[in-house]
Amino acid sequence: MIHNGGVHRWFFNTAQWNPSEHEFSFLLSVLPQHEQSSITRFLRLDDRKRALISRLLQYGLVHQVLGIPFEDIIINRTLEGKPYLENIVIDSELPNFNFNVSHHGDYVAIASDSIHIVGVDIVSHVIPERETTLEHVQNFSSYFTSLEWGKIMEAEISDEILGELYRYWCLKEAFIKAIGAGLGYDLERLEFHHTNWTDIYCHIDGHKSEEWQFWLSELGEGHWVSVARGHPRFAVKNYRKTLHSAEVEESAYHSNVQMPTNFIPQTIEQLLPVSLRESYRILSSKIT
């Protein structure tokens, strides 16, 4: 088991992983049946790979942090689609153990926390093919405040305009995912401020929030990853019901405000239970 206060940041590069049919089937078999069907419903292999790695990151993290066997882990989703652990966690150091996953482009990432609610988002630097950069960017104009929009549009090079857009978008999505909100949340309620994308803070409904922390960093070439974590009281109703300590005392909340670790790359073997690693190793060696 790895405890580390329940705070973890993992990622996996799916573009560098080319599993055989046997390897993919083996990894599917370690997951519950309902998870298997949610993966195989995708037609494209790239989508299946991302879905499988997303599940393995979730189950692997829960197993390693809490010691729950894969077959006993119960992960459900709220009506808004936020994944949460159904199993009851009896650990005073992990009163609100929660996690969030994201995938885009070449990467899948997971972030977890013990007291704060946490959200993670990945954005790949996609260059539009059927429209100009300005046409593409204009599609997002209603999601940003006038200050944010000004920062985006003051960049002079198309690539820089896209970069600004994606970084702001990445932060907003991480916040939405942290609170467990659905598509109906008005992103213009959030206004992000930063110093060269460090010391990031957010205004919510026009007021600076002291109860949120944000991090933004590059994740490989052409990808950004952001993490948002804040007080459980911000969780939407359906998600708040899944938390064991939604009303965290201020002293406990602030005493637990520790810097998260950097995102750490994971291998397939690392995500599996120890009891299955040798079988996977043998299978992989036969294939190669």
Overall description:
The protein is of the alpha+beta class and 288 residues long. The chain has one domain: Ribosomal Protein L22, Chain A. Helix content is 36%, strand content 23%. The chain is built from ten helices and twelve strands. The strands form four sheets. The chain has a four-stranded mixed β-sheet with strand order 4-5-1-12, covered by helices on one side. The protein has a three-stranded antiparallel β-sheet with strand order 6-11-10, covered by helices on one side. It has a three-stranded antiparallel β-sheet with strand order 7-8-9, with helices on one face. A hairpin with a 4-residue loop joins strand 10 and strand 11 (223-230). The longest helix has 22 residues, at 45-66. The protein is globular.
Total number of strands: 12
Level-1 CATH class name: Alpha Beta
Beta-strand content bin: 15-25%
Mean pLDDT: 92
Could you spell the SSE succession in H and E letters?
Answer: EHHHEEEEEHHHEEEEEHHEHH
Low-pLDDT sequence parts: none
CATH architecture: Alpha-Beta Complex
User: Largest beta sheet, briefly?
Assistant: 4 strands, mixed
Distance between the termini: 30 Å
GO biological process, one term: lysine biosynthetic process via aminoadipic acid
Keywords: Transferase
EC number: 2.7.8.7
Enzyme class: transferase
Protein traits:
3-stranded antiparallel sheet, about 25% strand, Ribosomal Protein L22, Chain A, alpha+beta, globular, about 290 residues, 12 strands
